[in-house]
Amino acid sequence: MSTALSVNLNKIAVLRNSRGGGEPDVVRAGIACLDAGAHGLTVHPRPDARHIREDDVHALAALCRARAVEFNIEGNPFAPPRPGYPGLLALCDAARPAQVTLVPDGDGQLTSDHGFDFVRDGAALLPLVAAFKALGCRVSVFVDVGDPEVARAAACGADRVELYTGPYAEAFAAGDPESALAAAGETARRAQAAGLAVNAGHDLNQANLAGFLRRVPDVREVSIGHALIGEALYAGLEATVRGYRRIVDAAARD
Ligand SMILES: CC(=O)[C@@H](O)[C@H](O)COP(=O)(O)O
Ligand SMILES: NCC(=O)COP(=O)(O)O
């Protein structure tokens, strides 16, 4: 079984928004990721539009359609519309992503840090999941590793769950990933037994990914952004500085 890599472009938009203007360009970055072999692209437009904006969603949806690859939009289905953010359902209605990943983030969160509470939110999720599926989207829901109620995602109508891998990444960085890996494997198996496919994401990187995929069975997709964009900066920094040196050195010779 192979695992698809979906690159999350949020952090390209963070850089762009820090200056206004259009650089770095999220579509150009998306093209580079797809040219390098990414199987799809992910965005998590937040209601405060701190990074990915509505216009980015449409531009990237068009790119993914043209390249026949998966576009994955993440967001909180309960967050109400506001200026600059039409709401997740309206956004998906307009952009028609192949997959929507429902994430229960509050507005003020720095980043995603927990999955759904299915006992509390299950009844409210049921009609929402149906509404996204009526748009033709595969629906994945963000879940905590170790959630004993993970099978309830199937009763909500979801197709997949995305395991929240932040705690695993922390345990790996601390040199003690064993119990996080065992728990992730167990949660994946419980979800799969309920008929759900399994995605994973959050703070995955080139150091911790292989160990995760070795231990957690049949992970269909990983979505990776923060670390990948940081690693890309390091990987490209030397070549870029050399390029600038060539320019200033050539100008000095003229
Ligand atoms: C659901 C998930 O784990 C990622 O989408 C994460 O939320 C990235 O969002 P930010 O880039 O806003 O931190
Ligand atoms: N769903 C996880 C995601 O899209 C990327 O998370 P991160 O790599 O930015 O932590």
TrEMBL record:
Record site feature (Transition state stabilizer), residues: 162
Pathway note: Cofactor biosynthesis; pyridoxine 5'-phosphate biosynthesis; pyridoxine 5'-phosphate from D-erythrose 4-phosphate: step 5/5
Catalytic activity, EC: 2.6.99.2
A GO MF label: pyridoxine 5'-phosphate synthase activity
InterPro entries the record matches: Aldolase_TIM, PyrdxlP_synth_PdxJ, Pyridoxine-5'_phos_synth
GO (cellular component) term, any one: cytosol
Protein name: Pyridoxine 5'-phosphate synthase
High-level lineage: Bacteria, Pseudomonadati, Pseudomonadota, Gammaproteobacteria, Lysobacterales
Name of the gene this protein is made from: pdxJ
